[in-house]
Every structure is written in structure tokens, then in C-alpha cells.
Amino acid sequence: MTDDDPDAAGGDTAVRRDRFTGGPAREFLSSLAADAAIFEADLAVDRAHVVMLAERGIVDEAVAGEILAALDDVEAAGHAELPDGEDVHEAIETAVIDRTGPDGGRMHTARSRNDEVATCIRYRLREDLLDAVGATVAAREALVDVADEHAETVMPGYTHLQPAQPTTVAHYLLSYEGGLARDTERLVDAYDRVNRSPLGAAAFAGTPFDVDRDRTAELLGFDGTVRNSMDAASARDFLAEAATALATLATTLSGLAEDLILFSKDGVVELADAYASTSSIMPQKKNPDTLELTRGVAGDAIGEATGTLSLLKGLPRAYNRDLQRAHASVFEIAGDVREATAVAAGAVATAEWDEAALAAAAGEGFSTATGVADLLAANGLPFRTAHEIVASAAPAVADGDDPTTAAAKVDEAARAVLGESLFERVSRDEVERVLDPAASVASRDSAGGPAPATVAEDLTAATAGIDADATALDERREALAAAAEALDAEVATYA
């Protein structure tokens, strides 16, 4: 049988018989174009499987060498040169058979496309997850760097978009570093569950061949196998977990982006030109376009997570063709979220924080009111009574009032509520001090609070956490690189 004998490929492809070729549904069935994302992954999986088959004596070593050489040729030619097929797996197998003859079909011994594609998805997805982890680590480093520069820069803090209490730029940015740290944890956890090999599960019921699943897992850099063969071939919960972790990260970024958009509108933050754009008609405009797109990515990511879960809901065991549509868009979203992470971090790192404007805004809306109530409570007055006094004074306190004027208005309210002067309980100096935004911030030195001394501790802790996560990332990347190098070395022995 010659290479150009159509029977060598079982008809038009390595898999389909004449009965299952042609017709208008063929294109609808095909995922070949979308499978470009897992082209390299499939080649790696093929190589590991062939090496294992040769080691176990299931495939002759010389035949294994021919198949591995053909895979090299396929890789060199690229995805665009693959023959037609329902998917990349079938197309690569067809290309191998075209080059080697019927013996190329031995590559598919003891496996199914079901376990093959599940392995390829995990192989590719773990790289996407590590890239996302790397982006979050870099973003956290950027936030910490800016926070360190602005540990004592007072700014307004908000609830319900209303001035609430003064805080600092450092305290504000560390709030997002904390969120991104949890996003990092979720991505690493997802990676660790993704990094398990389904290969060897075959269609779902295992195989009678004496395969070594642990060996292929090792060659591909997986931490182990998905033990149950039906679970291994059919489960895609790891995709849903990854998509959800990415969507949660995107949601964190969206909040940061929204804040920066509002701050830039208020004139307290100036975005670098590199992270802004202008109008095609209004020359005075400087628009926070990159941050708006960051918000948009969050919507896409949430949609993808929801779509993945919706696709998986109610699928019977074991394999269903619905799963063909479960992964390609997750890879796309992973890239978008990674890019959005870098953009948001860059916007923070390069922005100019107007310290004078922030300080002026920090006292707006009588934002130090809580400090006065806390002071009264600390000096023996029930907090709810103190709250009533300050609330009564709030309508009279204006944004332009200095601490002396504001203290007098609070005292007037105290006389109305208590029937005595406020200064019978606390000194005027103490009241005026807590009415100053900077002093108010300095007093809030509880764990995790905005006081500079507390923020300094939190900056140290954040840096340690970032370093630990960077180390964990490096370890996982090094493990994958070592496995890839070991696989290449094994393949080379068959040359």
C-alpha cells in the first residue's frame, strides 16, 4: 500500500469511513480551525504516548521512530498545512499516516480522541493559568510599589460613592493587592487540579493494552493522573474552575479600572498618555479607554464562565460532542484577562496622584465624622449617643470648615443632645485633631487599617506574599520545562 493510497488513511481521513464523509454537516462538525490553540499540545501528547507505547513493547521501536519523525515534519509544516479533518487530532494522525504509511496508525493504539483531547486541553490550559498567575504577581508588585510611595498620601474613601472616611493611597491600593493575592491563589489552585493527566483512559473504559499512564503523565509534566477512566475522559469541571477563576480576577480588575476612571474624572489622578486615548472630534479629550476595555473584559470573562457551566450542566457520562465547544473560548478569555491585568497594573504604575487635590478631597462630606464619634465613645459616651450628636452636627458642617469651626458646630449639637458642652468630656484640641483628615488616618492603627505604621507592616507582608507566589510560579514553570526537555531527550533516542 502506497502513501497516496486512499485506504492508507481510511478514506478521506485517518478515522472516518466513506459513510461518514461529505455532506453539509461536515464543516459544522469540524473544530480544526479552533484547534490551532492545541496544535502544539497534541504533538506533545502524541510524542509522549508513542514513547510509552515503545517502552511497553506495544509498538516496535523502529515504527515509533518513524512516527516521531513524522510528527517532527508535521510540526515544522505547521497547523495551516494539516489535511482536512474533524479536529486537529484526526488531522495530525492523517498527516502522520500520509508520511509513514499504515504503520502511522499505530500511534493511536490504546487511546481514544476522548482521552487525547482532554489531555491536550489540560496541557495547554495549564500554560494559560501560569501566564495569568505571572500577570497577577506583576500587578501586585506594581500596586505595592506605588503604595510604598504614597504610604502617607491622604485621600477620600467612599461607600456608596459618597465621601465616607479619609484613608491613604497606600491603604486603598493594598485593598486591591489583597484581592489580587486571592485571585493568584485561585489560579494556582486551578492549575494544580488541571495538571492531572487523563491519557490512558481511552474512550472512557480504559484499555486492555499494558499502558503506563503514570509514565505519560511524567513525560508531559503532569503531577499525576485522573484515576477513574470515565472521569478522566469526560470531565470538564477543570475548565469551569479555570474560567471562574479568570472571571473573578477580571472582576477585581474591573473594580480597579472603574475607580481609576472616576478618579481621573475628578482630577485627582492623571493617567499616563500610554493608557489613555483622545477623541476623533473633540481635541481636548483624554479618555481612559484602556480601563474601559478592562471593564469590558470582565463582562466577557463572566459570560464565558457562565457559558461553560451552562454547557456542562446536565451532560450524561461519558463523552458528548457538546464538549468540543467547551475549551476554545476559555483559551481566548485567558489571553484577554492576562492582557487586561497587565494594562490595569501599568495604568496604576504610571499614573500621577495629585497629593494636594487628594488631601483637599479627603475631608469633603464631613468624612471625619466617625472619628469624632469614636473619640466621644472612647471617653465614656455610649457610641450610639455619640453617633446622634455627630449626625445632628453633620448638616451644619461645610466642606470649607476648618477643624476649629467644625468643632464648634459639633459642640453646639452636643449641647442640644446632652444639655452640656462637648468639651466637658473631651478637650477642644482632641476634637480638632480628629477632625483633621491626616490625623484621623493616623489614629486608625488597628490591624489592616490605614495608619502609616500599620500600612508599613502590611506592605512588608504583601511583599512576602508576592515573593512566595513568584517562587511557586517559578517552581511550576521549571517543572514543565524540565518535563519538556526530558520528553525531547526521549524522543531523540528514536531518531
Describe the structure.
The chain is mainly α. It folds into three domains: 6-109, Fumarase/aspartase (N-terminal domain) (Fumarase C, Chain B, domain 1, Orthogonal Bundle), CATH 1.10.275; 115-136 and 180-360, Fumarase C, Chain A, domain 2, CATH 1.20.200; 363-443. It contains 18 helices and four strands. The strands form two sheets. A two-stranded antiparallel sheet has the order 1-2. The chain has a two-stranded antiparallel sheet with strand order 3-4.
Can you describe this structure in just a few lines?
Mean pLDDT is 92; it is low at 1-11.
CATH superfamily of the largest domain: Fumarase/aspartase (Central domain)
The order of strands across the largest sheet is 1-2
CATH class categorisation of the largest domain: Mainly Alpha
> What amount of the residues lies in strands?
under 5%
Number of strands: 4
Order of helices and strands: HHHHHEEHHHHEHHEHHHHHHH
How many domains, in number, for the residues? Answer: 3
End-to-end separation in angstroms reads 24 Å
Structural class: mainly alpha
Query: What best-fitting shape do the alpha-carbon axes yield?
Result: elongated
Q: Regions with pLDDT < 50 over 5+ consecutive residues?
A: 1-11
Q: What is the architecture of the largest domain at the second tier of CATH?
A: Up-down Bundle
The biggest beta sheet reads: 2 strands, antiparallel
Give me the Rg, rounded: 31 Å
Tell me the number of helical segments per DSSP (H or I, 4 or more residues long): 18
The CATH topology name of the largest domain reads Fumarase C, Chain A, domain 2
